[in-house]
Write a structure and sequence with these properties.
Radius of gyration: 17 Å
Shape: globular
CATH topology: TIM Barrel
Distance between the termini: 9 Å
Strand order of the largest sheet: 1-2-3-4-5-6-7-8
Strand content: 15-25%
Number of domains: 1
CATH architecture: Alpha-Beta Barrel
CATH class: Alpha Beta
Structural class: alpha/beta
Largest sheet: 8 strands, parallel
Order of helices and strands: EHEHEHEHEHEHEHEHH
Number of helices: 9
CATH superfamily: Metal-dependent hydrolases
């Protein structure tokens, strides 16, 4: 099953994207995409993302506050997330708490506040018995500490860019690793090496639309879930495996770590 495990579909409703959101969904359907996971980034897009999930059969959602957006948030934003999780806790298309995490690549952010928001959201994931969808840059070990502290043992480390040792630590914790557009660039040697050699059971595929467009798209182009088949083909080539095996295994991995996908996908 071809699953885009990370796609900001609500940001594809722009003139540069032919047909907007439904155009992107149509192109994804044409290449066999069966499910698209859309994480939120802030309370302002909670309702928009839920509405997409309720109107498009392939769309599922995660609720969370992205670490880059934390700078502009107040403590009441965490209350907003708590209330949204409580409101939608039984929604069959709520699959995770996300997109949450830490981003130490961006230097002008309040790391202490980011850490507080991350840990608070880990606690919510534990309390609501939900997996996590993680954003991690230059903070792999700190994110792992939060997972261990709250006993979180399911989810996705999206756009993985850590070391082999860190990859193994996430896998030991029960998470899988997301690979997408970055993997398609020959200069991304470490990411490609991990994609080629990690256990296939630890890998899911993603686009991170509209960001991280694959190598074959023009520089600065908008990414979309319709690129999933070509991304799966890239992983198959890196691993010297069949496209069918890659699609089946990565789909099964997404279903395993996001159990609510099984109710519809």
């Amino acid at each position: 099953m071809l699953i885009d495990s990370h796609c900001h579909l609500d940001y594809l409703d722009v003139p540069a994207n032919p047909g907007g959101i439904m155009g992107a969904i149509s192109r994804a359907r044409s290449v066999g995409v069966r499910a698209v996971i859309v994480p939120t980034v802030a309370p302002e897009n909670f309702d928009r993302v839920v509405a997409l999930a309720e109107s498009i059969p392939e769309v599922f959602f995660a609720l969370g506050i992205h670490p880059i957006y934390v700078q502009e948030m107040s403590d009441s934003s965490l209350d907003d997330l708590q209330n949204a999780l409580r409101r939608f806790k039984d929604h069959p298309k709520l699959v995770a708490v996300g997109e949450i995490g830490l981003d130490h690549y961006v230097s002008d952010r309040d790391r202490e506040k980011m850490q507080m928001f991350y840990l608070a959201q880990c606690k919510m994931a534990r309390d609501f018995s939900l997996p996590v969808v993680l954003h991690v840059r230059k903070a792999q070990d700190q994110v792992l500490k939060g997972l261990r502290r709250y006993g979180i043992r399911s989810g996705i480390a999206h756009a993985f860019n850590g070391s082999l040792v860190q990859a193994q630590a996430y896998i030991a914790q029960g998470l899988v690793l997301g690979f997408g557009g970055a993997m398609t660039f020959t200069r991304a040697a470490q990411i490609r090496r991990l994609a080629a050699t990690l256990p296939l059971s630890a890998i899911v595929l993603e686009t991170d639309s509209p960001d991280i467009a694959p190598a074959w798209r023009a520089r600065g182009a908008i990414n979309e879930p319709g690129e999933m088949l070509a991304i799966a083909r890239c992983l198959a080539e890196l691993r010297d495996d069949s496209l069918e095996t890659i699609i089946r295994a990565t789909g099964e991995n997404s279903l395993r770590v996001l159990p609510r996908l099984n109710t519809h996908a």
